[in-house]
Amino acid sequence: MCRYSGGRVLAVESGLYVVATPIGNLGDISQRALAVLAAADLVAAEDTRHSARLLQHYSIDVPLQAYHDHSNARAQARIMACLEASGVVVLVSDAGTPLISDPGYRLVREAQEQGYRVIPIPGACAAIAALSASGLPTDRFLFEGFLPAKAGARAARLQALATETATLVFYEAPHRVAETLEAMVVAFGAEREALLARELTKTFETLRRAPLAELAAFVAADSNQQRGEIVLAVSGSRGHDQELTPDITRLLLRLVAELPARRASAVVADLTGLRKKVLYDFLLEQKD
Ligand code: SAM
């Protein structure tokens, strides 16, 4: 039931509010988010028990209803009825910004199509938090969300992204992070800079930027890095003039088995347009 009754003057205007909630630290919520939540006639939540605990923390007591992208027509109809009665409906997910690898797309579309206001209340988002402290270029980035869980589909997706020049941002499950980093080394090359952002805003927050092979070794060697919530970011391809792709790396390593390092670097530089020094330095690092 929508709590709103006809003649009441609303402090918060009627509409569907898409409200960001913390991704760990409960201090990371805006005053506007709290005001809208406190005024809500209905909070549509991915997991009502989870959101009930969150609201309890802020001493907010409002009606909750489960909502996700596979919710049945009745759940959606109840939300629409509340909007129709000029109510304040708030959409939240378990953490961060709704619709960012979280439910809400269908509801936002439906509300817009029926002519209701949809109002974003911005706040925490793991991808943006990770990027902001990554030290990677942020002028252009591509949010990829979760990669496919199966190795073949994941490798194909990564390969399709190998020449992308924008910084890439991924969400990853902790039990897959080690193998995903290995797959990234294969697709993007050992030297591409990447970031592991783990448990952001929480006690064991870790931010580590390193070349992909080094980051993969760091995570493989420490099971603690394979726990919690994780964002991976990878700098974009810098093009063939500067970058050692996996194919070029293979060629170089094959040649250096037959030729001195300087000669192998010169041949590959000639074939690819890469700078000889980049190739030679890479061979020296391998030797080390
Ligand atoms: N809507 C959320 C947002 O705005 O970031 C993301 C929801 S998605 C279902 C959950 C994923 O976000 C996690 O598996 C993890 O990849 C990432 N994530 C959420 N909280 C995080 C945190 N505190 N630190 C690092 N990654 C986090």
Task: Kindly list the characteristics that best describe this protein.
Methyltransferase, Cobalt-precorrin-4 Transmethylase, Domain 2, alpha/beta, binds S-adenosylmethionine, five-stranded mixed sheet, elongated, 17% strand
What topology does this entry show?
Blueprint: E1 15-19, H1 31-38, E2 42-45, H2 48-57, E3 64-66, H3 73-84, E4 88-92, H4 105-113, E5 118-121, H5 126-132, E6 141-146, H6 151-160, E7 167-172, H7 177-188, E8 193-198, E9 206-211, H8 212-221, E10 230-234, H9 246-256, H10 261-272, H11 276-287
What does it look like?
- This protein has 288 residues and is of the alpha/beta class.
- The chain folds into 3 domains: 2-124, Cobalt-precorrin-4 Transmethylase, domain 1 (3-Layer(aba) Sandwich); 132-234, Tetrapyrrole methylase, C-terminal domain (Methyltransferase, Cobalt-precorrin-4 Transmethylase, Domain 2, 2-Layer Sandwich), CATH 3.30.950.10; 246-287.
- The protein has helices at 31-38, 48-57, 73-84, 105-113, 126-132, 151-160, 177-188, 212-221, 246-256, 261-272, 276-287, and strands at 15-19, 42-45, 64-66, 88-92, 118-121, 141-146, 167-172, 193-198, 206-211, 230-234.
- The strands form 2 sheets. A 5-stranded parallel sheet has the order 3-2-4-1-5, with helices on both faces.
- Helix 9 (246-256) packs antiparallel against helix 10 (261-272) and helix 10 (261-272) packs across helix 11 (276-287).
- The longest helix is centred in the N-terminal third of the chain and has 12 residues, at 73-84.
- Residues 5-10 have low confidence and may be disordered.
- The structure holds S-adenosylmethionine.
